[in-house]
Amino acid sequence: MNLYDPWPNEVTVNQHTYRLDLSFDNVLYALKARGDEGMTMMDRCETFLQLVIKQDIPPVADWVDVHNAIIDLITTAKQKPTRYDINGDPIEPKGEGEHIKADYDFDFDASYIYAAFRQTYGIDLVKEQGRMHWLSFVALFDALPDDTAFVRIRHIRSTRLGDIKDKKQRDAVRRQQRELALPDDENKEEGGDSYGS
């Protein structure tokens, strides 16, 4: 990202340039389709390309390359989840292989994200559908301040219970994590406590 070039709206792969619809709502919809486990990988890839590319999609042989070029274009380093300690300070991963579970979901947390954008920037995301570029949305999303409910919820979800020494405080945070759990976390918890102790 830089401030002297326009936001990118195309990718070039194998000497073919593809114009893209990178409005934030369209990208969110395409990413949701890309994660639909009810479809085959090829169907997911095709659907993603159909949603994002404004013209005919590439030949099947180029699908993966074009898909990866688009993902590289829309993915920023800050989109990786961050784990926090009990004080709300970010914790650096101990090793590159350490898995950090997601602390937000664009669909599940939609109302909190909408409210955070209204509170912080005065932006009505519904009115920005089809207009706000994905990279603009992500830059604002990554800069949401701690005084929004959405960021506080992310902090609670990503707190490691094992780092809390006080049992009462650990139990209180565990209770909050259960109340605010993402759908996948709730399903995992049915089989046991997925938050540690």
What does this structure look like?
By secondary structure, the chain is mainly alpha-helical. It has two domains: 10-75, no CATH class; 78-189, no CATH class. 44% of the residues lie in helices and 6% in strands. It contains eight helices and four strands; from the N terminus they run ββαααββααααα. The chain has helices at residues 24-34, 41-52, 63-74, 110-121, 134-142, 149-158, 167-179, 183-189; strands spanning 10-13, 16-19, 83-84, 90-91. The protein has a two-stranded antiparallel ribbon with strand order 1-2. Strands 3-4 form a two-stranded antiparallel ribbon. Strand 1 and strand 2 form a beta hairpin. The chain is globular, with a radius of gyration of 19 Å. The termini are far apart.
Distance between the termini: 40 Å
Number of helices: 8
Structural class: mainly alpha
What is the tally of beta strands?
Answer: 4
Q: What percentage of amino acids are in beta strands?
A: 5-15%
Q: On the 0-100 scale, what is the average pLDDT?
A: 85
Give the total of domains: 2
Radius of gyration: 19 Å
Helical fraction: 40-55%
- Which residues form runs of ≥5 with pLDDT under 50? 188-197
What is the H/E string?
A: EEHHHEEHHHHH
Largest sheet: 2 strands, antiparallel
Spatial strand order of the main sheet: 1-2
Shape: globular
Described by its quaternary structure, the protein is: single chain
